[in-house]
Amino acid sequence: MLPRFVGRLSLADAVTAANAALGFVAVVVATQDPELAARLILLAGIADGLDGVVARYSGGSAVGPYLDSLADVASFSVAPAVLVYATVTANAAIAFDAVTLGDALTLALPALFVAMGVIRLGMYTAYDTADEYTEGVPTTLAATILAAAVLCGVTKGAYLLVGTAAFAYLMVSTIRYPDLLARDALLMGVVHALAVLFPYAYGRTFPWAILTLALAYLLAGPWFYWRGGRVLSKWYGNA
Questions:
Q1: How far apart are CA 82 and CA 27, in angstroms?
Q2: Ordered structural domains, the chain, with CATH
Q3: Could you give the percent of the chain with pLDDT greater than 70?
């Protein structure tokens, strides 16, 4: 008897499933090699962009949007949260027999990041897939920034935990982010690939490049983004 999905899933769905698998592997290796885990999260980001390209050229399936959000839970919610926890604890030993406020935050903030990421992805699937924008910081963007920061050598716990806490709110905020143009998504994908393949080349140039591009979109994307020769202005709330 063949599995139920035979004949129902597309090639794009296979890429999406690979994205989820990369997220699992990133979680497994995070405690042993956080920088490898960061590279795997960035690789999952490439798969996340590639499945859309494949779907446009070879067709998608009815379950594609749901699979995409489920895969993103693994790769861009759970994996970056574990990466932050593993990186912080690797640089500051935690003794759970005498838990301090810092220890509690080290565990609680990544857990909150996962919870808000799941909520954000559910809201996206329900309300945003047909629009040219999405409300709240995309989980892919949040995960990319956290992973790129670790790959750049940013391991100070305070920085990572503050960033994690900020993203936990921003992912469920009403800030509107326009979809990337194809040319910009391609640029991001190329830099992603270079950061994954050559993370230490030229003084970690490629991780710093992806971090810079991602931060630029995080800060400027909602307000100024070129599309078809004009600037899109985005704003808070429903204004």
A1: 6
A2: 11-232 (1.20.120)
A3: 85
